[in-house]
Design goal:
The protein is an alpha/beta fold and 332 residues long. The chain has a domain at 29-247: Alpha-Beta Barrel (TIM Barrel). Helices cover 37% and strands 19% of the residues. The protein has an eight-stranded parallel β-barrel, surrounded by nine helices. Strands 6-7 form a two-stranded antiparallel ribbon. Helix 8 (261-270) links the parallel strand 10 and strand 11. Helix 4 (147-163) packs parallel to helix 5, helix 5 packs parallel to helix 7 and helix 8 runs parallel beside helix 10. The longest helix has 17 residues, at 147-163.
């Protein structure tokens, strides 16, 4: 052995599996997980999403049963999305007290009383043009989302969702001032205790494609780059997060997650609010299809990536693998 070889050998901390487990500084717990749920008003039985194998659009009763089954496995927080029968230019189904998310929330509350119900508040699933607010014509004839025109609609949506039983409202439209408008609306309606988990740092990502299949929310024209964040503009990250906190957000979210670990870390270090990270549909699909082709071990890949999201600073992980992770963590 050459002279000067170090006497400190870090492999001594890795030989024994019990010691490895004792020294793990980052742990994924079932309590950290939030499962997305898609409730479809027109379905009578669940329907698998082709681009997300193992994920389903569900009628109300099936969605409620699924949430109860998740709770039995320890996953007691869900993020609820709705697909309505009909759409219009304003997205009025979003704030209909008999809308699909509202129906789903009531059924889930009855089936799983202790589950934390988080309602996604946006208009894209409900507008016939697929954008996240009403449209306005700009000079030159280009159409864009009317930011301030969307605020009242988002506030009405949040109040209706809270009335239906949502514990947390999660606004995802990326309109400037949306947290302020929703906080004012909730407080005026007597829902001061209803929290807001803001999609504060949500990027215009190619990784949302399978979600748009599941939620029927693809834009009918153009894209969402005028309101979702540019992945190449890092200086806006903390500005968005701090603006939402100043407007009254109780929790923040970074979306996507696995491709944006640096962003999760930056937000976690710069703010003191609880932080969620959304491991999005495209990230799910890449793992699922790669595993099905034999290219990788799904369980190891999922646990490694979920641990990385937590290591980067996320307190909570929104993941389509929530049920599988709960099963794995529950094994002796």
């Amino acid at each position: 052995m050459s002279e000067g070889y170090p006497t400190r050998r870090l492999r001594r901390l890795r030989y024994n599996p019990t010691l490895r487990a004792m020294l793990a500084g980052v742990r994924v717990r079932v309590e950290d997980l939030i499962a997305p749920v898609f409730v479809h008003e027109a379905l009578r039985r669940r329907k698998e999403v082709p681009s997300m194998p193992g994920q389903y659009q569900r009628p109300v009763a099936d969605a409620a049963d699924y949430v109860a089954a998740l709770a039995a496995k320890g996953v007691r927080a869900v993020l609820v999305f709705g697909i309505p029968k009909a759409k219009d230019a304003s997205g009025s189904g979003a704030w209909d007290d008999e809308g699909i998310v509202q129906q789903g929330l009531r059924a889930m509350r009855a089936a799983a009383p202790q589950t934390l119900l988080i309602a996604d508040a946006c208009l894209c699933e409900y507008t016939d043009h697929g954008h996240c607010g009403p449209l306005v014509e700009l000079p030159g004839g280009r159409m864009d989302v009317d930011n301030d025109g969307a605020l009242a609609a988002l506030a009405r949506t949040a109040v209706s969702q809270a009335r239906a039983g949502a514990d947390i409202i999660a606004p995802s439209a990326m309109m400037d001032g949306q947290v302020w408008a929703i906080r004012r609306g909730l407080d005026a309606a007597g829902f001061e205790r209803t929290a807001i988990m803001s999609y504060a740092v949500k990027f215009a990502s190619a990784l949302y494609g399978p979600f748009r299949d599941a939620a029927g929310s693809a834009p009918g024209f153009g894209d969402r780059r005028s309101y979702q964040m540019d992945p190449a503009a890092p200086k806006q990250i903390l500005a968005e997060a701090k603006a939402d906190l100043a407007e009254g957000a109780d929790m923040l979210m970074v979306k996507p997650a696995a491709a944006y670990l640096d962003v999760i870390s930056a937000v976690a270090h710069a703010t003191d609010a609880p932080l969620a990270a959304y491991h999005v549909s495209g990230e799910f699909a890449m793992i699922r299809f790669a595993a099905r082709s034999g290219a990788l071990d799904e369980r190891r890949a999922v646990m490694e990536i979920t641990t990385s999201i937590k290591r980067a600073g996320a307190d909570l992980v929104i993941t389509y693998f929530a049920e599988q992770i709960a099963d794995w963590l529950g094994e002796p």
